[in-house]
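Anyone? Bumping this.
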Amino acid sequence: MAVAAPSLAARDVSFSYGSEPVLSHVDLTVGPGEFVALVGPNGSGKSTLLRVLLGLLPIQHGSVELLGTSPRRLRDRGRLGYVPQRRELAADLPATVREVVMAGRLSRSGWWRRPRQADRAAVDHALASVALADLGDRRLGELSGGQQQRALIAKAFASEPELLVLDEPVAGVDAESQGLFRDSLVHLVREHGAAVLLVSHELGAVAADLDRVVVIKHKVVFDGTPAELTASGVSLGVHREDLPLWLEGLD
Amino acid sequence: MAGMPWPLPWPFERTYMQLALVAGLAVGLAAPLIGTFLVQKRLSLIGDGIGHVAVAGVGAAILFGTSPVWTALVVAVLAALAIEWLRTRSRATGDLALALFFYGGIAAGVVLASRSATNTNLQPYLFGSILTVDAADVRLVLALAAVIVITVVVTRRALFSIVLDEEAARVSGIPVGVLNASLAGLTAITIVAAMRVVGVLLIAALMVLPVATSRLFARSFGQTLAGASGIGVVSVVVGLWASRAWALASGGAIVLAAAAIFALASLAVGVRRAAVGSPDLLSGQ
């Protein structure tokens, strides 16, 4: 039986900023329909690894494949969804929630084309999946922080991605929004078969749904199931303080 | 132009005022479209800076006897692309490089013009001379404005995606570098198109003030764009009316009209907020 190609595959990836090494021989795969969390202490190279995987940084050593091809050669970008690390959105951004989410649809529809019925339907579905269906016509700045972040997640959902990469999507977000975020991710994985790579310091809301957890500290120090990780004494609630000493002691 | 003078009421009953009106409407419509994206990218003063550099183009044209508009256009576009390159690669020290561009540009323009044997005045290009435009000038302004409007209409969704989150836009396959460079180029084209209308030193106001007004009331980005253009057009009409009625400098009158509209709109929003007690639409105000 043929094994499906991984949605994301990083092989022997190393990266340095000048003379400072950040990543050392990292191997990471995410299979179709897999829900994988990437964790590590601050400065461990998580964000750098994401940027290399997504083609935002050049591959200095090793290889990366996104949906079967190198990041720079991936043409059908609608298959890839990305939620960058949450930053302060301009409170005076004069845009509705629906306009923001529709921006995520451009990779599917073509940025030069007018939205069509299928695009509007995808946006409505994305808004519903994050429980923002009633707030589509509100200005983004009128929403709470948690609601704004859900809007940005809906923006990534709107392209109906096969691979979704999220960088700290729920940092500082209220518990209700975290719960809704978990529901929408699980829906994407289970109903649409999407692969998800989630970088987060807070995995409590999704711990029961994860297939694998990958811990990095410049290199991969753990790659296994959540049960195997917690058996080593690490809580998935807020792992930053709970990382085992053997990890903190690594060079 | 064909059929002029058209049967329009005062103060637009004369041919020269109608030519000024057409040129002004084209710029009033197009400039705020570019300004909407510049304001959102926190680049409101880039238009002012490129205008300064365009003066060097005018000075060179005066010295060498070439067309001021086309020479300024080449210089402004090159400067805009260089500034965009600096912006994407420099950090805080980029401000110093920008200052070098801006003040070096206007100084070069003054020096070059002073070397001309014809002793041509720079003032019409600095502050506009809309009442002296001829049919050829108007056709050029219309053509440049058409380029701006058509490009914005085609690329506005992609540009919005970039101002929302440039990194996410890059990952989604939007050609961010090309579109940012295009926006810089369109800014330069707007500056040059407006050179005879309000002048290169005042055009930034016409790019920014209508946008600031529109954002007070708009409920969406689409409304912001349309509203800003509408307010730009109204500013031109009011400014030209005032310049004819009270013998005012037309470029300055148009910008003052835009400023007055913004002031009145801000006042109206403030009064409404005080009366209703509702949250303001702009944070920090």
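Late reply, but here is one note on the structure posted above: The two ends of chain B are 46 Å apart (CA to CA).
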